Amino acid sequence: MNDGDHSATALHPGTTLDRDVVLEQLFRDHYASLVRLAYCLIGDRAASEDAAQEAFVSLHRHWEGLRSSGAVVAYLRRATINQCRTTQRRLIRGRGALARLPSRADTASSEDSAVEHDELRRLAAAIRALPARQREVLVCRYFLELSEVATSEALEIGVSSVKQHAHRARTALHAMMGESR
Amino acid sequence: MTIDDRAIERALTALADDGYATSTNVDPAYREFVARTSRAERLRHVTRWAVAAVVVGILALGGILAFQQGGDRDGRDRLQPATPRPSTTQLISPTELVGTWLVEADSLFGGFPWLWTFNADGSGSGSPNANTTENTWVYTLSGNSIGARDRPGGCAYSWVVSRYDAGSLTLEVLNHCGNLGDDITLTRLSPASPAGSAIAMPSMTDATPLRDVADAGGVWLMRGTGMLLAIEARNPAFATYRLDDQGSLASDPVDRGTVALDATGDLTLVSTNPPPHGCAASRPGARLTGVVVTPLGLQARQGVESVCIDADLTTSWIRVAAR
């Protein structure tokens, strides 16, 4: 999922276009990427779809209060992340979430790619095992490709915290991948 | 495999592909969104009408009462308009709120109990497991309103105390991280309260001997008391415990240390806290012998020996949080 702030749609709430028309276009442009974002955070498809849905419902409710097109996508992301935090508390047993990660059915065509594929799966599982805040930082930085400043705004934490969590996450990943060999 | 930025990107993309392909048709999802917004709009309209009706009702009732009061007097006093009642009595004091609570709210937590701790300094924490500081927040109690915010940043919460009696607290949910939900029921476990002390010991009929320290992981309430024992056993080779009956299990437990399980099912708490509550050196502080467990209960069938931990431990423990 890319930054997404540069949608072709006239996004900003102050547009003369009808709210529902703009919302439909926004939904079609961004729903899938928000579900994917949520899935990276909570690993449950139904809950991820619900989180993205609720982000759009929240946008619908607060439409009048938004000021710019950039703010709309940022708002959707923040709302999705917040929904995921709530959902995570509902799902509980966060450590059991790894077990819910589906195993991919597709198989690699060569031994090398199979090994590489397996390594990526292990790395993805290790990311899912990180503490929530570290995982959120990695998802913002490497999945959404946000800058440190944009990540701090999306997660509503300081830039120094972003750096700290990213550092700890990478250290933990190295440890987990090393230990599991 | 080198864990560079590109590897993390690819791993996350693979993970997202597992959950939702970008090519998925969004039409059904959009129809669901339209239905949700319609429901939300209807709910808002109903709520507005309900609030308006309640306000009109209150004003009308106030007017009638004022009229009756005026009529009871002999006409020398001028009829006064009805005035709102002063704010209601605070149902729970800040001191009573401080402590560790068992939280039950099916609609918000998926039916799993959580432990929340409110500290005297306005901080708090909560989790559904032995890692009792997994989520931290700051809170304020003003009248019967409790506001909280996750730290750092994160969700905001707003509840109203609707009932408090002998350690049993009911909160009406105004905003739970952007959600509404049913009332939340809390029972204060520590410091001890009548409601917490009354929690019944579950049946131990199907209990099995404790053979894996991980099965003792979680938070346990000593039956009939406010004593909590949190055993963190995600790494069975280095299980730790915290022991507290002062409401500060999360931040400053009375005692802490490591946990060892031997082949006969004896669970030993090795205190690393100094006296007066802990032991002078790292040595067995307490031993629970012949331990048996069920998913909900733990029992030391051959007794408990407190060697140097300053706590009168007994044999029966009730699970109040998962491992």
TrEMBL record, chain A:
The keyword Transcription applies. One of its GO terms (biological process) is DNA-templated transcription initiation. Residues 26-90 form the RNA polymerase sigma-70 region domain. It comes from the Bacteria. Residues 121-173 form the RNA polymerase sigma factor 70 region 4 type domain. GO terms for molecular function: DNA binding; sigma factor activity. CDD domains: Sigma70_r4 (cd06171). It holds the Pfam family Sigma70_r4_2. Keywords: DNA-binding, Sigma factor, Transcription, Transcription regulation. NCBIfam families: sigma70-ECF. Belongs to the sigma-70 factor family. ECF subfamily. This is RNA polymerase subunit sigma-24. It comes from Knoellia aerolata DSM 18566.
From TrEMBL, chain B:
The chain crosses the membrane at residues 46-67. Keywords: Membrane, Transmembrane, Transmembrane helix. This is Uncharacterized protein.
